[in-house]
């Protein structure tokens, strides 16, 4: 169990010449796993045993221990960049990390030793590339580590990267001034009520009547939304406008479907988005949609089942064309049937957690690139009309942000 170098020393910079110790590798991997657990929501967001071993062999791992025992309290996987590198944030802005910069891609720390372990570790890392820009990437939801990095260690926040797993990673730099294009005001919030009473009470009742009458014509009016975050199969939908005109049950988008689906549906890969054959039954509903400025992409009813309806935390980062005017499509919600016990949760760019209930008849902007979760604990099925609109100057005026 003994290591070639005494573990009680607070720092050990391991090289390929040092004999790898299985217990050491497992201890460091365990530290990363425990440190990342509250902020990591996917299977691939934390360094594995293999990754730790590779970092050791490549001379890209440094760690510190509690001075009174052999417990590892912090570890970092880093590299000195041999070429320029680029990072992209959730909005598509790019940031260049120049050759020779020091970049810490993973930093794990025991919550009991954030200041005591990370501060000297960062100081030691600084000595590896003196005078060069020092970049570090951390979970924005780890408030203690974020405050230490930003307030005590002199790093400056640059951008937020949102992973497919819905992890929120902040990129910080020291010893360099970075200027990126400013985010538009509408790219900062997760959700905003644009118009409180977009639908009149008469329109709301009429739209629901159209939906009930249509449902009475079909044995199965709703189709399951195929996604990993559709908990307990509680999320269903119906397309009034989509990419398969003759099939209102196709609620998705061809470009984000599986390879197998694309191979078996080649005719839909270039299909335009247009009203489906059932849209004619929803004259009042589609009339309300037409009042929203801009060209429409998909228009769908989305239902979340009563009492146990849930969309688990996720972020739609693979659909970069669905969000704010910085890209091409904006997501809007119009609640038709809801209840105070139906609410959206979202996690913002700096890890802030917010919760909001969307009231019936209102028009709401929703940035689905940011991590979010939806819960229905009410006794009624929640039904929203979800409208995707291509960005335009006209629509930006409606956003008023």
Give keywords.
eight-stranded antiparallel β-sheet, 401 residues, alpha+beta, disordered N terminus, seven-stranded mixed β-sheet, Jelly Rolls, 31% strand, Aminopeptidase, elongated
CATH superfamily of the largest domain: B-lactam Antibiotic, Isopenicillin N Synthase, Chain
CATH C-level class of the largest domain:
Mainly Beta
Tell me the β content: 25-35%
Gap between N and C termini: 60 Å
Outline the secondary-structure elements.
Elements (H helix, E strand, L loop, with lengths): L10 E3 L8 H15 L12 H9 L3 E5 L6 E9 L4 E4 L5 E4 L4 E8 L4 H13 L7 E6 L3 H10 L3 E7 L5 E7 L16 E5 L5 H17 L5 E2 L5 E2 L3 E8 L16 H6 L9 E2 L7 H8 L5 E9 L4 E6 L14 E9 L4 E6 L5 E4 L6 E4 L5 E5 L5 E9 L2 H7 L2
Parallel strand pairs: 6-7
Antiparallel strand pairs: 1-2, 2-3, 3-6, 4-5, 7-9, 8-9, 10-20, 11-13, 12-16, 13-14, 13-15, 15-22, 16-21, 17-20, 17-22, 18-19, 18-21
């Amino acid at each position: 169990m003994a290591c070639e170098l005494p573990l009680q020393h607070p720092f050990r910079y391991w090289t390929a010449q040092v004999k790898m110790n299985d217990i050491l590798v497992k201890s460091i991997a365990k530290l990363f796993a425990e440190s990342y657990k509250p902020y990591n929501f996917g299977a691939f967001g934390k360094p594995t045993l293999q990754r730790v071993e590779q970092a050791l062999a490549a001379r890209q791992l440094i760690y510190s221990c509690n001075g009174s025992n052999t417990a590892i309290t912090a570890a970092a996987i880093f590299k000195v960049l041999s070429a320029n590198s680029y990072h992209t944030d959730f909005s598509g802005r790019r940031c260049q990390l120049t050759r020779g910069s020091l970049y810490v891609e993973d930093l794990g720390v025991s919550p009991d030793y954030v200041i005591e372990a990370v501060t000297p570790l960062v100081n030691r890392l600084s000595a590896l590339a003196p005078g060069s820009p020092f970049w570090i990437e951390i979970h924005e939801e780890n408030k203690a580590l974020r405050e230490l990095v930003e307030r005590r260690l002199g790093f400056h926040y640059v951008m937020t990267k949102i992973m497919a797993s819905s992890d929120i990673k902040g990129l910080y730099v020291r010893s360099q001034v970075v200027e990126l294009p400013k985010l538009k005001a509408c790219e900062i919030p997760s959700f905003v009520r644009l118009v409180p009473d977009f639908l009149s009470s008469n329109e709301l009742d009429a739209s629901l009547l159209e939906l009930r009458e249509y449902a009475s014509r079909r044995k199965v009016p709703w189709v399951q939304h195929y996604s990993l975050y559709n908990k307990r199969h509680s999320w269903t939908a119906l397309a009034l406008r989509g990419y398969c005109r003759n099939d209102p049950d196709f609620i998705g988008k061809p470009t984000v479907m599986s390879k197998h689906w694309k191979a078996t549906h080649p005719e839909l890969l270039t299909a335009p988005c247009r009203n489906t054959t059932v849209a004619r039954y929803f004259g009042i509903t589609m009339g309300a949609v037409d009042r929203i400025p801009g060209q429409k992409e998909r228009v769908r009813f989305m239902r979340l089942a009563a009492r146990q309806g849930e969309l688990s935390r996720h972020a739609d980062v693979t659909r970069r064309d669905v969000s704010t005017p910085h890209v091409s499509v904006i997501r809007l919600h119009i609640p038709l049937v809801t209840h105070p016990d139906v609410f959206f949760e979202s996690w913002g760019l700096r890890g802030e957690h917010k919760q909001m209930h969307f009231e019936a008849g209102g028009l709401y902007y929703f940035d689905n690139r940011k991590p979010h979760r939806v819960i229905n604990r009410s006794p009624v099925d929640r039904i929203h009309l979800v409208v995707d609109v291509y960005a335009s100057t006209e629509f930006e005026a409606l956003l008023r942000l």
